[in-house]
């Protein structure tokens, strides 16, 4: 209520009743106002607001900006670990339920402030992950406020979120079209786009072009992001850009670009002194050795350094991608039963949505089919060749899709 808002603001300003009352109000009258026993006139309210250094509208609001900031601070803590790609996970659903319960009581009382826009954005994302159709309404409201306040980075996050709606349904062309329209809106209505936001938008556009198999447009977006980053001396998202460019070059068999971007990714890893990039570069290089160069024996020791060997079971274990590579390498060195045992343990991560990532993981069923063929189990070979074929059918062309089609033809159509 009004009295509580005045008291809260007064205490935050570390003012006594006497100091706030000044020479226009009595201490007793102000005390009655704070206890909601008296209603001030508009003239008195303007005076109190002036003494507190706030706009009169803040005193008249049903929810004060101070209260909104507290709610937002709590919401941000919950939202900090939020991962929209894991929208079906129990953890995400629990987070979203907490967020909607926290924010919902304030929705009807939000204003045109940043705090309101951010709460609307978080509320919208939470509803989206809970499969509530109203998410778009609150997303639109947040976008309008960000536009009016010229908060470009926040507005760009809304653009990305709108595209995610299509992306997670594997409607990549629609996601790209949505994001291009959103980017055009931002570029034509906002005063200036900060460097980090521009690079982020270039990266997302490159990722979406690669999702539909438009390699020329992907390369142009990648080069645009890299050229701008060099100009601005900005390293933001450089690792993601190099990683995307490297894997796309691998998938289309462009060896020159593959080696160029892989080298850049390695150099970035050395620059930031993060060993995770060393492993990332190794696993990407292993895919190149297996599928482009056919140097299986050279790939094996690189794979093995990331696996743990159990002396009792005489078996290796490790990361899902590393084990997938181990299974493929074992097939190529003609250890079919052992390869099959490994490949059957591989799972497709639920959060894998990009065709580039899908193309890598879908090789699992190609090699299961090939192993079964070598072990003379033709029925099982056909079953997995068909699974792989159906998985690759909607994906853009790649060296993996070519291998899949050849495997399907040799096993199912011969």
TrEMBL record:
Q: Can you name one GO molecular function term for this protein?
A: DNA binding
Question: What InterPro entries does the entry give?
Answer: Cro/C1-type_HTH, Lambda_DNA-bd_dom_sf, TPR-like_helical_dom_sf, TransReg_Diox_bact_type
Keyword DNA-binding listed: yes
Q: Is-annotated flag, keyword DNA-binding?
A: yes
The record's SUPFAM superfamilies line, in alphabetical order, gives:
lambda repressor-like DNA-binding domains (SSF47413)
Cross-referenced Pfam families: HTH_19 (PF12844)
Domain of life of the native organism: Bacteria
Q: Which residues form a coiled coil?
A: none
Please give an example of a GO cellular component term from this record. Answer: cytosol
User: Keywords of this protein's UniProt record, alphabetized?
Assistant: DNA-binding
Cited PANTHER family: HTH-TYPE TRANSCRIPTIONAL REGULATOR (PTHR46797), METHYLPHOSPHONATE SYNTHASE (PTHR46797:SF1)
Q: What is this protein called?
A: Uncharacterized protein
- Tell me the organism: Niallia circulans
